Amino acid sequence: MSNPTRTYLDFERPIAELDAKIEELQSVSERNGEDAPDVADEVAKLRQKSATQLKNLYAKLDPWQKTMVARHPERPHLKDFLAGLITDFEELSGDRRFSEDHAIVGGLGRFRGRAVVVMGHEKGHDTQTRLKHNFGMARPEGYRKAARLMDLADKFGLPVLTFVDTAGAYPGVGAEERGQSEAIARSTERCLTLGTPIISVITGEGGSGGAVALASANTVMMLEHSIYSVISPEGCASILWRDGAKARDAAIAMKITAQDLIGLKIIDKIIPEPVGGAHRDRDATIKAVGDAMEENLSSLEGLDPATLRRKRRERFLAIGRSLMEPAA
């Protein structure tokens, strides 16, 4: 049965119209209390048409459409991944310097039998939780908390799993007064100096230094329709053209999609999403992310701290070098 409460994006309007027709036919059939063969046949044809259009539509999304999918409110968020992948989760709060920041959630748990430290950005799923988590935009204390959790992972030899989904670090006056840029740099540095494996997945938006602070990992992966960029398309458009309406042009120019970034060797793997995006089948998406994390974590197990740091360093230093090599 179609979902009447689903949020459709602007470019999904033809799909929304077909699903509305399906819903209408089903409602009429249920109201009349009849199981009419002709109605069932029509519903089946419309469902097939909707599925085909959805598959064709998502096979050729442009970068701006992918940006909208990455921001979809029904995509799985950190707490969905924690519920689906982590058992015995124990949240750890506070940076031990100023206060707690709810935009970054982290703690200890077990990932498919392994003890791990896990953390990530949480955007929230409704007005109340979005305000609580500040829409996933962390303040300095969030990044200092992340560094503290990585210290803990290093001390006890635990691998670190991070889930990135943020438009960027919070740009408020208070955050800047408390050293936002320094906190981001310290968190990034701690990722790079960690003596245990660290695996990162960009699950929605990977915005600016606020994303890099949790994604300077041995392995960086992206969901198929997520984005990863130095600035939002709207921010880029407002700086370059002083016109936020040119966000689509900026999204195309910045090469922010997983398909662009794997070609530039900025990420290591693309995790496929269900047809129509992660929001249409959260459980399948969460399982796919878990499988990819387990595979990459297994490949890093047994490596000593020096080797893990060296591989991480070489990975980031290699970015862009192949683009500078002269053609043969």
From TrEMBL:
Coiled-coil regions listed: none
Domain of life of the native organism: Bacteria
Function per UniProt: Component of the acetyl coenzyme A carboxylase (ACC) complex. First, biotin carboxylase catalyzes the carboxylation of biotin on its carrier protein (BCCP) and then the CO(2) group is transferred by the carboxyltransferase to acetyl-CoA to form malonyl-CoA.
EC number: 2.1.3.15
One example GO MF annotation: transferase activity
InterPro entries: Acetyl_CoA_COase_a_su, ClpP/crotonase-like_dom_sf, COA_CT_C
First-level EC class: transferase
Biological classification of the source: Bacteria, Pseudomonadati, Pseudomonadota, Alphaproteobacteria, Maricaulales
Reactions this protein catalyses: N(6)-carboxybiotinyl-L-lysyl-[protein] + acetyl-CoA = N(6)-biotinyl-L-lysyl-[protein] + malonyl-CoA
Record carries keyword Cell membrane: no
PANTHER family noted in UniProt: ACETYL-COENZYME A CARBOXYLASE CARBOXYL TRANSFERASE SUBUNIT ALPHA, ACETYL-COENZYME A CARBOXYLASE CARBOXYL TRANSFERASE SUBUNIT ALPHA, CHLOROPLASTIC
Gene name, Swiss-Prot/TrEMBL: accA
SUPFAM superfamilies for the chain: ClpP/crotonase (SSF52096)
Protein name: Acetyl-coenzyme A carboxylase carboxyl transferase subunit alpha
Keyword annotations from UniProtKB, A to Z: ATP-binding, Cytoplasm, Fatty acid biosynthesis, Fatty acid metabolism, Lipid biosynthesis, Lipid metabolism, Nucleotide-binding, Transferase
Primary site of residence: cytoplasm
